[in-house]
Amino acid sequence: MVHNQDQNSMDIKNIAIVFAPSLFGAPGLPGATHHTNGTNPGTVSDVGLQQKAIETILEHYVDIFVEELQEG
To answer: How many domains does the chain have?
Structure first.
């Protein structure tokens, strides 16, 4: 998707905006699991952090998910 961002306007930030609520939970989602400190993990104040987390994963996906081939 990012490779075609000139045509589809889906850069890493926009992809993060779309996928963060799906992966972390939408803000104020009824029935969302609460942290042990009583906060809802999908609160509006968390949205920016959720998006930044997805952006970071997408920017560094090779370091995170791709195993290096071992020589020898």
So the answer is: 1
